[in-house]
Design brief:
The chain is 63% helix and 0% strand. The protein is mainly α. The model has no long low-confidence stretch (mean pLDDT 86).
Length: 99
């Protein structure tokens, strides 16, 4: 253990000035508990859900169509890329194995 580490451990109270470990247990802070909330009934729960859903900004029909078409195009591109890579690798391995 180097000098710097010993000094840091002294400052933290882990060792005393001669380098021996101290028996002092580290302080523990009590964990804060969340306040106990009263349970609500099922009607109140669904009322809260409905009020939260009203706050959501829903996409327009045009946005949904645009995003869905973008996802479809990207899916086709990725499928083609994976197919092409697989095709090249299979033919490459077959070429190497034929000798």
């Amino acid at each position: 253990m180097n000098r710097q580490m010993k000094r840091m451990m002294e400052r933290q109270g882990q060792v005393d000035s001669d380098g021996a470990a101290t028996q002092k247990a580290p302080e523990r802070r009590p964990q804060a508990r969340p306040p106990h909330a009263e349970r609500s009934n099922i009607a109140e729960f669904f009322g809260d859900v409905q009020s939260e859903l009203r706050k959501v900004v829903w996409p327009s029909r045009r946005e949904v169509i645009n995003y869905a078409s973008l996802v479809f195009v990207m899916l086709v591109i990725l499928i083609a890329a994976i197919f092409g890579l697989d095709y090249v690798l299979v033919h490459g391995v077959n070429f190497l194995m034929k000798k």
